[in-house]
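Researcher: I need the complex structure. Ligand is adenosine-5'-diphosphate. Inputs:
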Amino acid sequence: LQVHQVELEMQNEELKEAQEELAKLLDEFHEFYDEAPVGYFSLDRNGNVRNVNIKGAELLGLDKGMIVGFGFVRFIPLNYQTKYYRSLKDAMVKCNVEEVELQLKREKSLFYVQMQIVPIYDKFDEKYRITITDITERKKAEEELLQNHDIFNAIIEDAEGPIFSVDCNYRYTSFNLLHAKVMKTLFNADIKIGNNILDYHTNPDDRENAKLNIDKALDGEVVKIESYAGDNLQNYRYFSIFHSPIKDSNGKVIGAAVYAHDITERKKAEEKLKQAHDNLEEQVKERTRELYNERQRLFDVLETVPIMICLLRPDYHVAFANRAFREKFGESGGRHCYEYCFGYSEPCEFCESFKPLETGEPHYWQVKSPDGSIIDSYDFPFTDTDGSPLILEMDIDVTEQKQAEEALKSTLRELERYNEELQSFAYITSHDLQEPLRSIASYAQLIERRYKGQLDSDADDFLDYMVGGATRLQGMIKGLLEYSRVGTKGGEFKDFNAEEALNHALSNLKSSIDECHVEVIYDHLPVIHADENQISRVFQNLIGNALKFRKKDIQPKIHISTQTDDEYIFSIADNGIGIEEQYKDRIFEVFKRLHPIGEYDGAGIGLAIVKKIVERHGGRIWVESEFGVGSTFYFALPVKSHE
Ligand code: ADP
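Model: Output:
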């Protein structure tokens, strides 16, 4: 019994120790239970709170007394109560820990909790332990994330270019509709999340390229490339593609994001632009070639022309001298123009070449070159290809021309002198010859009157010839005198009506006109500026000839008319014997007549006098005639005649 007693005491001791240990553990448990950082609620089988720890009360914002004894459902808003009940039931039925997210009430607001429901069985009761963790912050973050994600998705979908992301094994983690479309168009592929992007690239080179760039992004690099993709030439499109790494919160690369911007239109525009540029370049080249040829041609022309051409700089340097210039002056050899052309050490005092630099106008001057030749120099303002001013000089050697001009002038002077001499000679001789000729003629006539019929018949004929010859010679000398007087003894020029001159001539010819029953018609004639006597003489000679060379069998008709254009043209038309074509010019020469002596009167000088008068007035004379039908003599006078 004593042993038993001892054993009992010992067991009692152990029990006590165990009880103490248990009490200690219970304390620790309570302490742990109360101080735990999560909320603990112990519920009975009906869901009423049997106990709650400090954190649990704090989370609900209530004193423990306001919690214990009440159904837990009291702290759950209506819309979560079903969820709560279902979880409670599930936990019990499935004998499992149920995790559920729901909202709880705190004062007047709600907050999110992560709830863990643990079913507990003991021999007395079925009950639950509920653990709650405030997940308000996490929820908020999640919501934000979700919101961000929505925004992000919207951005991706709205993006103008295809966007996608892959994980480290090239499997799609996301893509936008555009990327899906592009892949459909280019590769006829229906892409799916989780599929390997590289599998869609049918062209090995494309695939290798895509892999290379994704690999770089997976290595942490941001890669921008321009590339084209497509399975055939009609279907290809250009892209500007960005590959960038996707990192997790620790900075570890977990994939790659690829943003492709379709630049096909830009590329095509660039290609077109390039083509246009190439075309333009080709055109420019061609134009340059043409210009070069043109320039060469121009240069050849400059080298060939017999005119001396040079370009002078304002500092007297010779920029260019053509062949003709070099032939005259030699090579310039970089010398100043005054040294090169004249051998001077300073600019020539007489030089006028540079005047266009001051005036901007071309300048002409004449210069004598060292070899004595005379040069006409034409200087023009000119501009070099770089815009700097130049003088373009063209020189023409006019020495020979000058000499010829001089020779011509002196010949003219001589000719004038001869002419004057001749005129006065003709005048003097014809004037002086008249007197002895008159005596010869009168004595010949005297002999004829006195001795005709007293000598033999030959002597009578000889006397006839002598008288006729002397009379003709008198006529010729008279005509010659008149001819020589046209220039020297002409009257003054004045305005008068040509009709008056004509009437004067007609009245002088009146007896012949009446005698021959001539019909004379004339138009109104204009007022002209001329020597009235001489113009009257012209009419008289021409109308006199028309009378003289009339046809015997018909009534002579004479028509005088005029027309005014740049000059006054008078015409005297007759219906006489006409003139053969070959004599039309000869008849205006001195002493030229077409008929044998005796057939028609006249010394053959009338038309020569007319021509001389017309020419004195600056006009001209000609005849149009049909042999046997009639002639029209024309004379034209300038509208304003000057002596
Ligand atoms: P002439 O004093 O002999 O008439 P002109 O010098 O007046 O000399 O004329 C030269 C010649 O021109 C005339 O001899 C004549 O043969 C010819 N001639 C001039 N006028 C006419 C005319 N109206 N009809 C035909 N022949 C003419």
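Model: Summary of the prediction. The chain has a mean pLDDT of 88.
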